[in-house]
């Protein structure tokens, strides 16, 4: 996995000989968090033969203060890649955080999923794993 993504000018696809992938969507929200506020960091990871030509491969949603149990982020994602191979297919990594009374951020869960390999509209639920151990002791 490569953490650095090179950029080339948009529309410069070497005479259109490389396959392209457009990722359009949003991180809509989450549910089941024991928090009165939350936000999500995301990052798309790709293999070494992928080139990001449009969009931001990582970002953060706004903080949501839900009235119920559903946290709403509605954070847009709009990415454009060129690739030389299917190896290293994009996956999105999510880290859900909450903000404490002092403005500090605490991790409340993380997860990942692969971007679908078929075109069309997809609704994806990402399981979120929660850390255990010292976190529970500190948070109380």
Show the helix and strand layout.
Layout lengths: L19 E12 L7 E7 L4 E5 L3 E3 L9 E14 L7 E9 L5 E10 L19 H6 L1
Distance between the termini: 37 Å
Q: What is the CATH third-level topology name?
A: Immunoglobulin-like
The CATH architecture comes to Sandwich
How many helices in DSSP terms? Answer: 1
| Residue windows where pLDDT falls under 50 for at least 5 positions | 1-6
Gyration radius, rounded: 17 Å
Order of helices and strands: EEEEEEEH
Structural descriptors:
about 140 residues, mainly beta, Immunoglobulin-like, four-stranded antiparallel beta sheet, three-stranded antiparallel beta sheet, about 5% helix, elongated, disordered N terminus
Structural commentary:
The chain has 140 residues and is mostly beta strands. It has one domain: Sandwich (Immunoglobulin-like). It is built from 1 helix and 7 strands; from the N terminus they run E-E-E-E-E-E-E-H. The protein has one helix at 134-139; strands at 20-31, 39-45, 50-54, 58-60, 70-83, 91-99, 105-114. The strands form 2 sheets. A 4-stranded antiparallel β-sheet has the order 4-2-6-7, with no helix packed on it. A 3-stranded antiparallel β-sheet has the order 1-5-3, with no helix packed on it. The longest helix has 6 residues, at 134-139. It is elongated and about 50 Å long. The N and C termini lie far apart (37 Å). Residues 1-6 have low confidence and may be disordered.
Could you provide a short overview of the structure?
The chain is mainly beta and 140 residues long. It has 1 helix and 7 strands. The protein has one helix spanning 134-139, and strands at 20-31, 39-45, 50-54, 58-60, 70-83, 91-99, 105-114.
């Amino acid at each position: 996995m490569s953490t650095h993504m090179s950029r080339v000018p948009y529309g410069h696809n070497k005479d259109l000989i490389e396959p392209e992938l457009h990722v359009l969507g949003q991180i809509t929200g989450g549910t089941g968090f024991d928090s009165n506020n939350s936000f999500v960091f995301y990052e798309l990871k790709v293999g070494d033969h992928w080139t990001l030509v449009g969009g931001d491969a990582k970002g953060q949603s706004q903080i949501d203060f839900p009235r119920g149990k559903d946290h709403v982020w509605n954070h847009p994602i709009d990415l454009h890649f060129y690739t030389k191979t299917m190896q290293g297919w994009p996956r999105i990594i999510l880290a859900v955080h909450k903000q404490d009374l002092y403005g500090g951020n605490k991790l409340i869960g993380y997860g990942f999923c692969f971007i679908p390999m078929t075109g069309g509209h997809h609704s994806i639920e990402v399981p979120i794993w929660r850390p255990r151990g010292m976190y529970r002791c500190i948070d109380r």
